[in-house]
Write a structure and sequence with these properties.
With 190 residues, the chain is an alpha+beta fold. It is built from 6 helices and 5 strands, in the order H-H-H-E-E-E-H-H-E-E-H. The termini are far apart.
Length: 190
Amino acid sequence: MLLELSQRLSNAPLPAVPNDANSTRTQNKTSDTNASLLGLPYWTRFNKMRDEQKLLPRFERAGAHFFHRYFLVTPSQKTGNRNIHYEGRIRINPPQVSMRLIFKTADDIKGLFDLIAQDRDRIEPEIGFRLLWLRDRGVKESHIAVERDDSDPRDATDWERQHAWLSEVVSAFEKVIQPRVLKLPPPRSA
């Protein structure tokens, strides 16, 4: 039953966002679509596009979430509970599509983020676009992000462009930042 619902949602066409600035949705600044519900068809289509193009890395199986991840470092005792992952995000109000590299969980996670961030003057020219360096996203969380405020995830006719852009960001992260993440010092043993 859940599988049938999931398949119906992932194949169901979604309404495009009206371009009319005087529309009710624009005037009320509300949405009739929940980002988590939209996540299943949105991220399913993203995975399908990446699979068809044989792009790596392979992201997790799509779910009804506003986010979608691929773990560079999976949290475990061996990794000192480090959680470093790519995370695509969709937002409805106001509309936005973003890709992030998230550093999370471990006691030394801010220090690890700082080791990458100290190289930001070389990273941004290598990547070719401006990054948001968000160190203080919580006690044990920091982000390197790229956001597109001109992309509305409710507009299914624009998903191909959005997914291509998200994939370009992942490729740039893989080429420029991922090698630096792999060189981070190992966790201190207890």
